[in-house]
Design goal:
With about 2000 residues, this protein is α/β, with parallel strands linked by helices. It is built from 59 helices and 59 strands. Helix 16 packs across helix 17 and helix 33 packs parallel to helix 35.
């Protein structure tokens, strides 16, 4: 059989027209067959045994030989192998059987795209049957009686739905896999079954055994051998023939939790690509249909289903050049290769195999059971091929509908009309009797273009014949389908009752759109979609208004406003619309089918009748049903652009490489040679080189020595060169703070996704694209930012190698560094790691669905690394994406929450500068704005001469890619311009004005600066092979012109570093003052001032920054077909620039305009001569005229070009050399070329006026007798020219840094960028945002110009979805919103604006904040009034004693003086000890000091600190109530009542007791009533238990109060009670769910801290009594019950102990150290004090760094205690806190306790640190007016008023008003007491703060109380505050007062006031007046306090 096949091989081979040597073919035939039979012996056996196979090798359809199929595959393999590097060719039979079957299966799917989805699912097999008869409905076998027939259950009644059994353990036999079955009756469910994996395909869709073997997982029944039988068992209830390929859809896998879930799709050779979703907009090209949407449920509007396109995805990035996209792209599902359609004729390494597509037309199906393969859908029915060469044409495109689908690859899939063509067979079904349309031979050769045919409505005929010369795309068809589906967003208008746009109207609107396109415009799918959208909406809204006015009906039928267009009218209306367009749109009407129209069009093309026609619209409206239509793009320019836009970047590069390698471009070079009348350019160059070689050596030496000579002659060396130091700009700091704020908000959220409190430091890793320059640039920024020093690295240890650890280049070696980063993060849980993904829009390819060859390890690397499970789950990694183009990260499936986006702030708001900057940023909006300004030449331009030449050559060379043509033309122009500048004046006619201007300014720039600084020109050539060609050519021309030392040419390749000549390296080292001999520039920023052409290659810029000396950005060669927003904006972002705002570009431009002629003529022979007035107001209004006037094409002369803000005098005209100068050296020529800079305005006008400028003499050649300004005789220049000499010698680089660069664009791109839509938004903004995303719907609203960045983000999040190759494609969770990663942020900002500096600054301040989180500001104040102490030589205790001796302590005098610095503004308390010195004291009391901020110092938190609610750590989770054992808020409320006689009523308190703390309390047995709080015994010695209950009164500090004592207590068991006000109970309970709360009665809601202290003490005493009674019954003595409680402020943060070295004399100086210890140690120590129950109050010092050794010599003091005290509630039973007090209540209590004879002991060796807390506490009391809510501050003088007056009452407690008034204005009551410290105010039974300038003397009226001796003391005033019965007249008469001393009596009411005066007989010694009565400014209901003042008689 094989011999027979081989013998038959040759006859058809000859017919293929392939020219190959016979001996080569014979050799490869032999090799191929050896390979076949050695590698696939099974095929031979099966082929002989299976006659059916033999039959299917060929196909008898249409009478072809049976061997045709075999021959073509064999031939293809041979041909591919010939061109392959592989030694062993691929097996023929493997291609023949497996791949053809797969290919045809996908064809079968693709042939039905335009059917409705449910129909195609139901009928796909029958449609593909071999005959054209109607399909027969499949009859299922009836189920057995009594069995279950419920959908989703098997016949045994067991549930098979995945959702039901996902968590069950299913037994799977060895060799079987769990598979999801799709049931047509349960579209939302998968059924689970077990299938033998031998009957399932591999990851390439191959090697599946025929037949079926499966088990039912429900009932366990095994051994189903037929899928029909199995489908009956599981109740699929099919209406078509059961096929495993159709219903076995997905593999099922278990996730980390063990739940069974849907996995990857089973690769059934194209089965998953059968659907085309109407709402998928124009994205019919994506590869992988979302798994959810394979069934009928795929019609959900915003969940697009992808069309049948099994090869190349639109979003492909660049591929390895030796791999084919068609064969090597295997997406990976769950770690293994994905289903991928392989080409029928592909070979893994084949690059150029000939097309044998046409012979496949009649191939039969490979096996009988695949009925879906239809003779109506052969592979050849459409070609979609773009490449002009016949060999390379179909190498990708033939592969199952392949190549053009890459359309969006470069272009994003949606921009140009066919951007995402499903360029495979996607035609509608057509009658089998219809004849195919023959594509004529030599179509491309005759017509010089390949027509692009867009399918429209209805059926599209098959094409045959010369398919290589035509391209077919379904993009328009998809657009039409989408336009007929209504989006969910518009259903709110009632759209469901309104019909969509009719097919006739769609086609008519399309014709209107095409008619209005200019000859150089290309249709955009977005434009058409918006036209449909607006048309539908306008009619829709008008109908809605009618609908609302009509009588409501169930389904109202509302007629449209306009009668619909009928199919009969359509051709006439279309012809009418096209009649006005000068035949650019041609209408062909057909009678029977589109086939006749297509045939007619091909005939007209061949006859040359459509030369002026750009679009042919073919309409067949003969039938009564829907119309058939298609549109052919026949315009050569449009067809070329559209066809090239279908190429992926990889295909684009391969195509160009192929043309370069095969020498196809030589024809272009030959053509250029014919243009030059003097012969080839190279001949001219060689001639020039030979003639000038003698001058070169001397000129070079002169050139090199030029700067030195200038210095000698006194000319200053240029001082303008300075690389900007690294500095943070204001807006960078603002962005860094916004980033920090977002991180903090994540930490503050209730989700607990980030615990900032647990981190001690910051680490980071910056991921950058694999560009060496970007990598070095990031290292440079990192090194100079100082971030690493901020993070704690020593400067001397900071090496380059150390810095490189923090930046990773995402290339093949990235995984090692990233793995180390992950390992580091796991090993350091207390370090916060920030993963920064810079240039984050680069490489968003999914690692799962990657279409790239697996040999490229960088493919999908971002997804594999940044989205890996370790990063996602690590609680200490925050990911920050940084990009200028965030659109691809803002889709419906994004991982970034919209709340975690940080957008760069606007630099200006309403014209105001928000950030004071010395530089102005020029970005895309500024560039676009410059084109409309009118007062200066714009920054964006295009070169119409260049465009015209490219268009002409495109028509001449239709088989060459336009990128090749554009590159060769531009290189030719640059070469000619260099030659013209160097003296070959005739060459000026072979370049354009723009290129000449660029070249001239580049070459002359270094001569205008004494140091040789020059300009940079960026020449952007995306295609690397073309960039290399351009580099070689320009370098050659430069070398022949001897310009090597004038400017450098640099080839910028992303994969390599920068290489420049040694001469220029030395120049840079001199300029930058670098002494390192090995130094080489590694970033483009280091090329500052270097005159150079930077050839910037690579398909996409990868974040490289350019220096300030950049002057021209030549983007004329960017791929103009890649019209997606990201691609466009990142190209223009290269020119983004900061301009010094003090010398703005506009000012310079204005100056230039004054020096230039306003009118210039055209300068090239292919432009109309036209006078253009720049900036004329009449032209500003007209877009067309404005475009001409400001469009910077060749109509602007070089002088006009000078106005384009170049500002160089040398630009006035190019230095064209006269004939006599040709003999000079190039350096002499260059010298003379600067002479034109001295020409005056008058001379220029004269030359312009006198010259009739023809096309060949457009540039005025001006020579002057004046010598060049840099020559030695420059002093002899005419005086008139001196100013110009100065200007010429100004540094070009300096000027460049003061103006933004000029950008040259392709005309197509320029039009898109500068045109705006109806909202004023640039058209580029409405393009598809990124090539790997697609629009969710055509029916989307327009973006608005007023949209903020946030609104744009929300727009893209709603209206874009990722394609399957996008890494976010699988990031969805069945509609739930938890797909956002909680620790992922996105920073976006314009390009080159400083994002790197911003995120580096963010790292710095984040590090500082984390350190700050581990630090607190504690009060650090020296004790006050120490100078008032009486120095004593007596020490009561030894230095080293641990506890006070009771008897000794009793002898210690009480120190009345307050030493706590917080009372610095409080009244001094006099005692008999002090001798007051008023001067000294007043000097200490500066008035301004009272209002100064208290001194603090920053302290690092120790491990024994108290924490607020922001602290979370593993150890204290249970303590805080976050332990799973305790449900949050699981606590109970208990009432606790006791009576108190002084209040005259029973007090009822409430305890909130968590379940975990109930063991501290005693409850009654029957009713669980709270009885008491358990108290320990005095004798208890448990070291793990704190005996004293701790009470912390607090208000307003639920977040910031330091209530977490777990670490302070060192884990010891303790009882801690928060004392809160009733209205704050809920918020405290929320934040502290595991803390006991004591809730004060509501009457104390407005009370001060005195009330809390009062109730704590009284409750504790009452509890002590209860416990004594309870434990007395247990035999315990009452005095053995522990009587102490701790009252602690809520700001006590740490505790310290002093250790003293006791060696030596104790009275002399001794050594001591202070260290932080736990509160547990301190309390245990104090509780262990001997005779501790004899002390009433025990406290400690307040910490201060200024503590002197003298203050701690005495280890114990008898003095005031504050803030943290142990209170003996037993001894202080009769001494109460004043429940009314707000301030100084502790001083008041201390004085009363001492006067009662109680002991107050302060441990001087212990100290407490108090944290400064800015919220809550006393600050929570705001005094405001009761009348108005206006928060006007009220002065303390207003706090009191006369009784019965009309004074404004205040909403504040009377006691607070009293205390505040006395603090600030007591001198009004006690004028004699002011600063009179020797005559204090006598205060009876209370201490009130009268201010720091008045002293008081406290006395108690109680009998037997301890008072100071007042015998010799004369008082200046008397204060009686709420006197009780102990104060009597006789008591007061003991004291003596100055004459004129004042009295102040304060009582609750006026009646009490009078009674007190009478009872105390005050009128005997004091004089009262009626006007001396006052009250606090309270309303009557607020119970004001009343005052009475009097004078001593």
């Amino acid at each position: 059989m094989v011999a027979e096949q081989v013998s038959l091989l040759w006859s058809p081979w000859a017919n293929l027209g392939l020219h190959m040597d016979r001996f080569v073919l014979n050799k490869w035939v032999q090799s191929t067959f050896n390979s076949i039979f050695s590698t696939n012996p099974i095929w031979v056996t099966q082929l002989n045994q299976n006659p059916e196979w033999r039959n299917h090798m060929g196909n008898s359809y249409a009478g072809q030989l049976k061997t045709t199929r075999f021959e073509e595959v064999l031939h293809n393999s041979i041909e591919a192998s010939l061109r392959s590097n592989n030694l062993v060719p691929r097996p023929v039979f493997s291609q023949l059987y497996l791949e053809a079957e797969q290919q045809l299966s996908s064809l079968e799917a693709g042939s039905r795209v335009d059917n409705e989805e449910e129909e195609e699912e139901e009928e796909e097999e029958e449609e593909g049957s071999e005959s054209s008869s109607s399909p027969i409905t499949y009859q299922m076998k009836p189920p057995p009686e009594g069995c279950c027939t419920t959908d989703g259950f098997c016949q045994a009644g067991k549930d098979l739905k995945l959702v039901s059994i996902s968590n069950e353990q299913i037994e799977v036999p060895a060799g079987f896999l769990l598979v999801g079955v799709k049931s047509p009756n349960l579209p939302d469910h998968l059924l689970v079954c077990a299938v033998d994996k031998r009957f399932l395909p591999d990851d390439y869709g191959r090697n599946a055994l025929l037949g079926f073997s499966g088990n039912c997982v429900g009932c366990g029944k095994k051994g189903f051998c037929y899928f029909t039988e199995f489908s009956n068992h599981i109740n699929l209830k099919l209406t078509t023939q059961p096929k495993k390929q159709k219903h076995l859809k997905y593999y099922l896998v278990r996730n980390a939790q063990g739940t069974l879930m849907k996995g990857s799709a089973i690769c059934w050779k194209g089965a998953e690509f059968r659907s085309c979703q109407p709402s998928s907009s124009t994205c019919s090209n994506p590869l992988f249909q979302p798994p959810e949407n394979t069934g009928p449920s795929a019609t959900v509007p915003n969940e697009p289903v992808l069309a049948a396109h099994p090869i190349i995805q639109a979003g492909m990035h660049q591929m390895a050049p030796d791999q084919l996209p068609s064969t090597a792209c295997h997406p990976v599902y769950n770690g293994k290769d994905s289903p991928q359609q392989h080409s029928v004729k592909s070979n893994l390494s084949s690059m150029t195999r000939p097309s044998v597509l046409g012979t496949l037309t009649n191939s039969g199906p490979p096996k009988k059971r695949h009925k879906g393969w239809s003779p109506e859908s052969p592979l050849s029915n459409e070609a979609w091929n773009l490449q002009p060469n016949t060999q390379i044409t179909n190498r990708n495109k033939n592969d199952g509908g392949g190549g053009g689908g890459g359309g969006g690859g470069s272009g994003g899939g949606m921009s140009c009309l066919p951007h995402a063509p499903l360029v495979g067979p996607v035609s509608s079904p057509v009658l089998a009797s219809e004849e195919p349309v023959l594509v004529p031979d030599n179509l491309l050769k005759i017509y010089k273009a390949k027509p692009v045919i867009f399918k429209g409505h209805g059926n599209f005929p098959y094409l045959c014949g010369n398919l290589n010369d035509v391209i077919v795309s379904p993009l328009l068809y998809t657009c039409y389908k989408n336009a007929q589906s209504l989006s969910r967003a518009y259903e709110q208008y009632g759209a469901s009752t309104i019909p969509p746009i009719s097919e006739e109207m769609q086609l008519l609107l399309t014709v209107y759109y095409l008619v209005q396109l200019a000859s150089d415009q290309v249709p955009l799918i977005e434009d058409l979609e918006q036209i449909f959208m607006r048309s539908w909406r306008e009619s829709h809204l008008s109908e809605i208004r009618q609908y609302q006015q009509a009588i409501p009906q169930a389904f109202p039928q509302v007629p449209g406003q306009i009668a619909p267009v009928t199919s009969a009218q359509l051709p006439w209306l279309a012809g009418l619309a096209a009649s006005s367009c000068n035949d650019s749109v041609h209408i062909i009407e057909c009678n029977c089918s589109l086939a006749e129209g297509l045939s007619e069009m091909f005939k007209m093309l061949m006859e040359g009748k459509l030369v002026k026609t750009n679009y042919v619209v073919i309409i067949c409206a003969c039938r009564n049903r829907a119309i058939d239509s298609c549109i052919a793009v026949t315009g050569k320019y449009q067809a070329r652009i559209l066809s090239e836009s279908m190429l992926t970047p990889a295909e684009y590069q391969k195509e160009v490489s192929y043309e370069l390698v095969t020498g196809k471009v030589e024809a272009l070079g030959a053509f250029f040679s014919t243009l030059c009348p003097d012969g080839d350019i190279d001949v001219l160059l060689d001639k020039f080189y030979q003639e000038n070689r003698t001058h070169i050596s001397s000129s070079l030496s002169a050139s090199v020595n030029k700067p030195a000579a200038l210095e000698v002659t006194g000319t200053a060396v240029c001082t303008s060169y300075n690389l900007e130091p690294h500095q943070i700009r204001p807006f960078q700091l603002a962005v860094a703070q916004k980033l920090l704020s977002h991180v903090c908000s994540i930490a503050d959220s209730s989700t607990q996704n980030l615990d900032l409190g647990s981190f001690e430091k910051v680490d980071f890793l910056i991921c950058v694209p694999p560009s060496e320059v970007t990598y070095q640039q990031t290292l440079f920024h990192l090194w100079h930012s100082g971030v690493l020093l901020e993070l704690g690295f020593e400067k001397e240890h900071l090496t380059k190698q150390r810095v490189e650890q923090y930046v990773v280049k995402l290339d093949a070696e990235a995984q090692t560094k990233f793995k180390a980063f992950l390992q580091n993060s796991m090993q350091n849980p207390h370090t916060l790691f920030v993963l920064i993904h810079d240039h984050a829009h680069w490489d968003l390819v999914s690692a799962v669905h990657s279409l790239y060859p697996q040999s490229d390890p960088a493919v999908g690397l971002v997804d594999r690394l940044l989205n890996c499970r370790e990063v996602k789950e690590a609680p200490n990694i925050v990911t920050l994406h940084v990009t200028s183009f965030p659109y691809a990260l803002q889709t419906q499936h994004t991982r970034i929450s919209p709340y975690n986006e940080i957008h760069w702030p606007s630099l200006y708001n309403n014209g105001a500068d928000l950030y004071h900057e010395n530089k102005k940023y020029y970005g895309l909006p500024e560039f676009i704005e410059s084109t409309f300004s009118g007062h200066s030449l714009p920054l964006l331009r295009y070169d119409s001469s260049f465009e015209a030449m490219v268009m002409a050559l495109g028509k001449r060379f239709p088989r060459l890619h336009s990128a090749v043509i554009r590159t060769f033309v531009l290189v030719q122009h640059y070469s000619a311009a260099m030659m013209a500048v160097c003296g070959l004046s005739q060459m000026k006619n072979y370049t354009t004005v723009e290129t000449l201007e660029i070249t001239q300014n580049l070459i002359n720039s270094s001569r205008q600066c004494p140091s040789g600084h020059g300009l940079m020109v960026v020449l952007r050539i995306p295609c690397i092979p073309l960039a290399a060609v351009a580099y070689e050519r320009l370098s050659h021309v430069r070398e022949r012109l001897a310009l090597e030392d004038h400017f450098e040419i640099i080839l910028g390749n992303p994969n390599s570093g920068i290489t420049i000549g040694k001469h220029f390296v030395e120049q840079l080292k001199i300029w930058q003052k670098i002494e390192d001999a090995e130094w080489r520039p590694q970033t483009y920023l280091e090329l500052e001032g270097l005159p150079c052409i930077l050839i910037f290659s690579g398909m996409d810029p990868q974040g490289e920054s350019l220096p300030r000396s950049l002057r021209y950005c030549d983007l004329r060669l960017i791929n103009s077909s890649c019209l997606v927003r990201t691609a466009l904006e990142q190209e223009l972002g290269l020119a983004a620039y900061f301009v010094s705002s003090d010398i703005s570009g506009e000012k310079v431009v204005a100056n230039d305009v004054l020096e230039s002629d306003p009118e210039k003529l055209s300068s090239t022979d292919n432009e109309d001569e036209e006078t253009v007035t720049e900036g004329s107001t009449s032209e500003k209004r007209s877009p067309v005229k404005r475009e001409r006037s400001s469009s910077h094409d060749s109509a602007a002369s070089s002088v006009s070009s000078k106005m384009s803000s170049t500002a160089f005098c040398s630009e006035l005209s190019p230095p064209l050399i006269t004939v006599g100068e040709v003999g000079k050296s190039p350096h002499q020529v260059l010298s003379s070329s600067t002479e034109e800079s001295t020409n005056t305005e008058r001379q220029r006008q004269k030359v312009e006026k006198d010259s009739k400028l023809t096309a060949k003499t457009a540039q005025p050649s001006i020579t002057s007798s004046s010598p060049p300004p840099f020559s030695s005789s420059s002093a002899s220049s005419a005086p008139t020219h001196s100013s110009f000499v100065l200007q010429a010698s100004q540094c070009s680089m300096t000027k460049a840094s003061q103006q933004s660069p000029i950008v040259y664009l392709p005309k197509l791109v320029y039009d898109i960028v500068t045109s705006a839509d109806s909202t004023g938004l640039p058209k580029s903004s409405s393009l598809l945002p990124y090539h790997s995303v697609m629009w969710a719907s055509s029916f989307r609203p327009l973006m608005s110009k007023m949209m903020t960045c946030t609104e744009q983000s929300l727009y893209y999040r709603q209206w874009t979805v990722p394609k399957p190759i996008h890494m976010d494609y699988n990031n969805r969770n069945e509609g739930r919103m938890d797909t956002f990663h909680p620790r992922r942020l996105l920073l976006s900002g314009p390009p080159q604006i400083g994002k790197t500096g911003a995120y580096l600054q963010f790292l710095s301040i984040l590090s500082r904040m984390l350190i700050r989180l581990t630090e607190v500001d504690v009060y650090d104040e020296e004790e006050i009034n120490n100078d008032l102490k009486e120095e004593s030589e007596q020490y009561y205790h030894q230095s080293g004693v641990a506890w006070p001796d009771l008897e000794t302590f009793k002898t210690m005098p009480f120190d009345y003086i307050i030493h706590d610095p917080k009372y610095e503004d409080a009244s001094l308390i006099c005692s008999r000890i002090q001798n007051m010195n008023s001067e000294d004291t007043s000097a200490n009391r500066k008035q301004e000091d009272l209002y100064m901020r208290r001194q603090t110092t920053r302290m690092r938190l120790s491990k024994y600190a108290a924490y607020n609610t922001y602290h979370h750590c593993e150890q204290c989770h249970q303590y805080m109530g976050f332990n799973p054992r305790y449900q949050l808020y699981e606590s109970t409320l208990h009432a606790f009542a006791f009576s108190y006689s002084m209040l005259g009523e029973e007090i009822q308190l409430h305890f909130i007791i968590p379940k975990s703390k109930e063991h501290h309390f005693v409850f009654s047995h029957p009713g669980r009533q709270l009885e008491s709080m358990r108290l320990p015994l005095v004798t208890d010695k448990n070291q793990d238990y704190i005996k004293s209950p701790t009470f912390t009164p607090t208000t307003g500090r639920h977040e910031h109060g330091l209530f977490n004592l777990y670490h302070a207590m060192d884990g010891a068991s303790h009882l801690h009670v928060l004392v809160v006000k009733e209205y704050e109970m809920a918020i405290y309970k929320k934040y502290w769910p595991n803390h006991i709360m004591l809730v004060l009665p509501s009457i104390f809601n407005s009370a001060g801290v005195g009330a809390a202290h009062f109730l704590i003490k009284e409750l504790s005493y009452h509890n002590l009594e209860l416990e004594r009674n309870r434990q007395e019954e247990l035999g315990i003595k009452p005095q053995d019950i522990w009587p102490f409680i701790v009252i602690s402020d809520d700001s006590c943060v740490m505790w310290n102990a002093i250790e003293i070295d006791c060696s030596g004399d104790r009275k002399s100086e001794y050594a001591w150290t202070e260290r932080n210890i736990s509160l547990k140690q301190i309390l245990h120590h104090i509780e262990s004090t001997p005779n501790v129950t004899h002390y009433a109050l025990i406290g400690m010092r307040k910490w201060s760094s200024k503590t002197k050794s003298g203050e701690i010599k005495e280890p114990f003091s008898c003095c005031h205690v504050h803030d943290f005290i142990m209170l003996n509630v037993d001894l202080t039973q009769n001494v109460q806190y004043n429940q009314n007090r707000f301030m100084c209540d502790d001083v008041d209590f201390n004085l009363r306790a001492h006067s009662a004879g109680l002991l107050i002991c302060r441990f001087n060796r212990f100290s407490v640190m108090k944290k400064q807390i800015a919220v809550g506490g006393q600050r929570s009391f705001h005094i405001k007016s009761k009348v108005s809510d206006n928060p006007v501050s009220i002065a303390p003088a207003q706090y009191i008023c006369a009784p019965d007056s009309k004074h404004t009452f205040l909403a504040a407690p009377a006691q607070l008003l009293l205390e505040k008034y006395l603090q600030y204005h007591s001198h009004r009551f006690f004028p004699l007491s002011l600063k009179n410290y020797s005559h204090p105010v006598l205060s009876v039974d209370c201490y009130l703060n009268l201010g720091s300038q008045i002293a008081v003397c406290y006395v108690s009226s109680r009998p037997h109380s301890l008072n100071v001796s007042c015998s010799g003391m004369i008082f200046s005033g008397l204060l009686l505050y709420l006197c009780d019965s102990f104060v009597v007249a006789s008591f007061l008469k003991k004291f003596h007062f100055l004459k004129g001393a004042t009295l102040c009596v304060i009582c609750q009411d006026r009646n009490s006031l009078r009674q007190t005066v009478v009872r105390l007989e005050l009128e005997d010694e004091w004089q009262f007046r009626l006007r001396d009565e006052f009250q606090t400014a309270n309303a009557k209901e607020d119970k004001p306090l009343f005052f009475l003042t009097g004078r001593h008689i």
